[in-house]
Every structure is written in C-alpha cells, then in structure tokens.
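Posting this for the archive.
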Amino acid sequence: MTDGVVLAHDYVTQRGGAERVALTMAEAFPGSPMYTTLYDPGSTFPEFADVDLRVSPLDRVGVLRRNHRLALPLLAPTVSRQRVVGDVLLASSSGWAHGYRGAERTVVYCYAPARWLYQTDRYLSGVDGTTAAERARNAAAGAALGVLGGPLRAWDRRAAHRADTYVAVSSLTQRAIRDAYGIEAEIVPPPPALRAEGPESPVEGLEPGFLLCVARLLPYKNVEVAVRAALAVDGPPLVVVGTGPDRERLERLAGDSGRVVFVGTVDDAQLRWLYRGAALLVAFSYEDYGLTPLEAAAFGVPSVTLGSGGYLDTVVDGQTGTYVEAPDARLATIAISQALATRWDREVLVRHATTFGHEAFVARLREIVLAQGENPGRAR
C-alpha cells in the first residue's frame, strides 16, 4: 500500500471513462487496495484483475453484479457499513464511493454529484423500443428513488461534507458540486485514458476512413443521433463501439443499409486501431467530461460533438473539432459533412491531447492526496 493511501470506486461493473481513471489511480498509488461494492470481471477492464479489490457482501449476488441499478436501494447502507482501513482515502465517485468511512482523511475525485438524485430523468432515461427487461429495471429504480430520494440526498450530502478535499473532473462538475453541496472543488482533468502508444489490432471487415462513435449504448448517450446522421450523410460508414440495453433498438434503426456497423466490446489494441483509422469521431451525449475527443485527438483525429457540458473543456472549436448546438440528427449531418471537408492539422490535435497528459494528472493527484497525509485527522 502506498504511504497509507487506500482507494475506492463506486462499482467495477462497466468499461467506461471513470473505470479507466480508477485504474490510473491504482497506477498512481501502487499496491493500494480499492474498495468497491460490486465487481463483474467480464463486464469491465481486465486490468482490474491486478488490483487488490475489496468488495462488499452485495458482490455475492450475481444479478446485482450484472445490473448495478437494481442494487440502488442497498448501496448507501452497504457503503456506510463497509469501513476502509487507511490514513487517506482517495474516492473515485459519481455517487457512492465518497460515502466510505474509516480513513483519517478523505479526498473525493468527483465525476458528478449523483445523477440519480440530481438528474433523475437523465439517469433513468428510456425510450420506446428498449427491452421489456430494461423498462422493468428502470421502473424499479424509479420507484425506489421515489421512496428513497429524500433520505439518499441527505446521506449523499452528509458524505460530501465529511470529505476533506473535493476534486472535480471538469468545469461543469465543479459547478454541479458547488450547486449540490456548496463545496468549492479544484479541477484536475483526467488524461486520455487510452494511450496512443501501444499495440494495435485490426477489426475484421473494416477499412480505415470511417466515422467512429465510442459510447455505452444507453438512450441518454444519444447514439441515435449519430446513427441517423450516418444514414443521411454522403460519406463513410459509422462504426459504433460499445454495448448496452439500447443496442437492439439502434440496430433496428440502422437496418441493413450497411451504413452503420456495431462492433460491441473491443480490447485496447483494437480500439487504438479504430481511433487511428477513423476519419472523424462523433459524440452527441450530455457528458460531464468529454473524454473520447481527447483520445481521438491523441491519434490526430478531429471530433464533432455536442457544444455543451464536458466537451467544452476538451474540444477546441475549429481546431480539434466542431460543435453542434443540440443533439439533432439534421444538425449533426451538416456538421459531419463540413468536418469531413475540412483539412485538420494533425500536429495541433496531438499537441492538444498532450496538454491533458497522464504524467501531469498523476503528479497533481499525488500532491493532493499526500498533502492530506501530512495533516492527519480522525477516522470518520
């Protein structure tokens, strides 16, 4: 364990940007255990197998590992009971990990205050055509929030105010932390989690020059906008990387046109090849931090993104990409056509990505955490 530092992450059941950041934290503090509620090895990054994960009793229930939303009513009391052992806790949190207790000092690296409490419609967003099972899960989570919303918000705010330091992933998150908790947080943006250096492996059946979308297939990710634009634009096909409950509906929307290819989950070597082979990245979701445009920029690839939220921190309009005003397929089609006709400066793109460097992120995170170790408090 690194200098008495322990780590925490909400649940290790997905392959997302937050999970990549959690792995970077494990790298920054080698040997430190990571406390979490649920761990599903088949649904997350294989590198977590090398992390000393301390899971909660909920992890014994397979259905909860496969769908953490079903565990929503149980997570707050579970985190409260699962005490950590260490001097300084670094919590990677979008709603639960900041509630762990037992360390003398706590640093919270916050992606967003809990969406299910402060952006409930977005968290539970669904559309006609999603599966009956997904609608049932959303309905169950919605019913639980209707009953538990007030107590959970009280728990959430108490947990936030026990922390010694809050760190925000972006300016949008910084404002959300201020609004939800009245806490001022320093912004420390994470690096492109997928480094451009490393092995590459082609994805069978694809030729370079495609549009690329990398996202979990959930309705609020607005992958539908990218699909509809790809069907309308006079340009290359769209390759969609990611899995999720919205895949079946999106595949029906794309039909058998050949304009959209769903490749599901890929490993890092394949993802590097996809980024390097892309003509353009497209992303129209409401994000707290715009990670995928940075990953694309590291390979010299520009982006067309929604002109709001976390993308405002990571895309320079006209230099590393272009914005659309709203998640609208017509606007996306126009922006994609214009971006494909633009000559982008690869050196500018790569240089922009390096300003969000891995080394700078790790160094600042270590400074913040180790400074807390020099100011011991009492176990909380």
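DSSP finds 15 helices and 13 strands in the chain. The radius of gyration is 20 Å.
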